């Protein structure tokens, strides 16, 4: 009897141990089968409302220097890259016609003076004096035009950006100007801003500008002109930005990146590691963690990127947990194992 009792007790103990072993093993297998994920809470913070644009640097003014009449080039006084001042002589064309006009004007002035004296003593009529005065005025006008087309001067302070002819060449209305002068202090940028920002852009507002050639160095510009119409095809409007350039480091043709700042808005932000881009559509999605440790696949609309975070315009609310690690292989409704 005692032996039977001991034997039964041993059998019961073995059964219990075996059952416990199987339960632990099944639990371990179930836990290991669940994907391990890490989630981060979506929070609200003040997000700068910026809009970025690209532009090409344009001069404040551009002047193509050409004579008004065909002539041979006698002298060119500047080279490409030279700085010039307003009124500075740039080139001299053939002056044969100029000399002839100068003689003609001098003779007409003498004649007009003599005829004015004769008119005073009644020797000629007023009509005769008026006729010679008309000839003198016309000749003086022609002389001024000839002087402007013989001695070419700079109309602006700037820099010579192109010289297309040499001394001795004949200029007869060629496709290219003799010289090109650009005023590059200040310089201008033109950007196309979406219609949705029309009421947010103001004349005089500051903008940040960077240039690839200068790395991360920041330059400050000002909105100088807002075009009053919206392009019906692009739904955008042209905004002009003026940038001071006293040291002439910035040159026309440079590639610029312009950032407009419209202030801060309190928005939900999420980690950029949580965002999934659907191929072929450009739509963005995230997985959120539910209370029962299942995940939901949600489409989100994103705004600006701030470092390693995205601004969320819709799709995720503050306080929701968003999966940031272990996303690969997840599907909507899948149960997961969160880890800290």
* Radius of gyration over all CA atoms, rounded: 41 Å
The total of beta strands comes to 20
Average predicted local confidence, pLDDT: 88
Strand content: 35-45%
Helix fraction bin = 10-25%
What best-fitting shape do the alpha-carbon axes yield? rod-shaped
Tell me the span between the first and last alpha carbons: 57 Å
Which class of secondary structure composition applies to the elements?
A: alpha+beta
Count of helix runs: 3
Main sheet overview: 16 strands, mixed
Known CATH architecture of the domain at 52-59 and 184-263: Beta Barrel
CATH class call of the domain at 52-59 and 184-263: Mainly Beta
Order of helices and strands: HEEEEEEHHEEEEEEEEEEEEEE
Output the CATH topology of the domain at 52-59 and 184-263. Answer: Elongation Factor Tu (Ef-tu), domain 3
Write out the CATH superfamily name of the domain at 52-59 and 184-263: Efflux pump adaptor protein, beta barrel domain
Are there runs of 5+ residues with pLDDT below 50, and where? 1-31
């Amino acid at each position: 009897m005692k032996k039977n009792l001991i034997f039964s007790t041993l059998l019961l103990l073995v059964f219990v141990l075996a059952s416990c072993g199987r339960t632990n093993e099944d639990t371990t297998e179930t836990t290991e089968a669940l994907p391990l994920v890490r989630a981060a809470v979506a929070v609200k913070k003040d997000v700068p409302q910026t809009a970025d644009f690209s532009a090409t640097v344009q001069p404040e003014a551009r002047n193509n220097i050409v004579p008004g009449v065909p002539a041979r080039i006698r002298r060119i006084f500047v080279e490409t890259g030279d700085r010039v001042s307003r009124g500075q002589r740039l080139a001299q064309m053939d002056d044969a016609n100029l000399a002839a006009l100068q003689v003609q004007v001098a003779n007409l002035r003498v004649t007009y003076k003599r005829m004015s004296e004769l008119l005073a003593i009644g020797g000629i009529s007023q009509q005769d004096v008026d006729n010679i005065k008309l000839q003198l005025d016309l000749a003086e006008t022609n002389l001024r035009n000839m002087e402007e087309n013989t001695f070419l001067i700079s109309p602006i302070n700037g820099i010579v950006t192109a010289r297309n002819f040499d001394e001795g060449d004949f200029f007869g209305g060629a496709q290219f100007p003799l010289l090109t002068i650009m005023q590059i202090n200040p310089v201008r940028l033109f950007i196309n801003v979406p219609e949705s920002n029309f009421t947010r852009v103001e004349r005089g507002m500051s903008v940040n500008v960077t240039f690839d050639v200068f790395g991360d160095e920041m330059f400050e510009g000002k909105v100088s002109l807002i075009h009053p119409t919206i392009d019906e095809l692009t739904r955008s409007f042209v905004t002009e930005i003026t940038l001071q350039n006293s040291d002439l480091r910035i040159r026309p043709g440079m590639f610029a990146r312009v950032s407009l700042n419209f202030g801060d808005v309190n928005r939900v932000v999420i980690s950029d590691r949580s965002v999934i881009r659907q191929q072929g559509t450009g739509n963005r999605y995230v997985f959120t963690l539910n209370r029962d440790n299942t995940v939901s696949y949600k489409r989100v609309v994103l705004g600006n990127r701030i470092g390693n975070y995205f601004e969320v315009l819709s799709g995720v609310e503050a306080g929701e947990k968003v999966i940031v690690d272990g996303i690969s292989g997840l599907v909507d409704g899948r149960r997961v194992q969160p880890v800290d």
